[in-house]
Fold this sequence. Notes:
Elements: E1 3-9, H1 15-24, E2 29-31, H2 32-38, H3 45-54, H4 67-74, H5 78-105, E3 110-114, E4 129-134, H6 137-148, H7 152-160, H8 165-170, E5 174-177, H9 182-195
Parallel strand pairs: 1-3, 1-4, 2-3, 4-5
The protein binds dephospho coenzyme A and adenosine-5'-triphosphate (ATP).
Adenosine-5'-triphosphate is lined by residues 9, 11-17, 33, 116, 143, 147, 178, 181-182, 185.
Amino acid sequence: xxxxxxxxxxxxxxxxxxxxxxxxxxxxxxxxxxxxxxxxxxxxxxxxxxxxxxxxxxxxxxxxxxxxxxxxxxxxxxxxxxxxxxxxxxxxxxxxxxxxxxxxxxxxxxxxxxxxxxxxxxxxxxxxxxxxxxxxxxxxxxxxxxxxxxxxxxxxxxxxxxxxxxxxxxxxxxxxxxxxxxxxxxxxxxxxxxxxxxxxxxx
Length: 203
Ligand SMILES: CC(C)(COP(=O)(O)OP(=O)(O)OC[C@H]1O[C@@H](n2cnc3c(N)ncnc32)[C@H](O)[C@@H]1O)[C@@H](O)C(=O)NCCC(=O)NCCS
Ligand SMILES: Nc1ncnc2c1ncn2[C@@H]1O[C@H](COP(=O)(O)OP(=O)(O)OP(=O)(O)O)[C@@H](O)[C@H]1O
């Protein structure tokens, strides 16, 4: 039997950082952000619908989607964000479930679904354990501004478009406190996986 873990948190709390630790432990990760990029490639149904809804102004010269432009639109307007979510989320979910089921069939002892909006989109039923990567809002803001070169306002718009990570932590089966070093978070992850009998105690 495979254990299906939902890895979540809020923007820039460290999901990708923890996701790469699972990879290091040879545990497969299905990355919703990566699938979100695949399903909007030219030729895909979601791509056509985005161009219809948002217009050609969100395209780059090579006709791929200008993610910065689309991001500016949807993170400053909730109804536009909902419109985009309604187009993209079903396609992401379909691919994610296909990949999850393939991992289960292949007999993996564990598979991770890395889903930033696991709680917002009420997808808890897709996973057996919820693992939340937590930092306080000040650290989240600093790391987001540094990583994306955002102004404070741009970063706060994105943070405010999600449920606060404190609230998500209340729903978690386990929490990684990622305010410390990356090595410290890795130790926390290994302890959690030992507790869930996914990695051996000696590791
Ligand atoms: C708006 C888009 C074009 C911006 O692209 P960009 O390359 O700048 O950001 P990226 O996709 O890497 O997302 C970065 C982070 O933003 C947050 N985020 C992305 N989309 C959303 C959303 N609709 N609502 C709230 N937060 C979001 C997540 O924490 C994500 O990890 C893109 O995020 C998108 O297509 N979003 C809709 C799909 C979606 O919901 N993806 C996230 C979960 S599957
Ligand atoms: N423990 C840490 N110490 C210092 N910096 C960190 C730590 N963990 C992550 N970071 C940095 O913080 C930023 C956000 O981390 P990461 O990209 O993993 O977040 P995320 O939750 O996956 O973000 P998103 O929701 O946008 O996908 C990155 O620049 C990363 O290198």
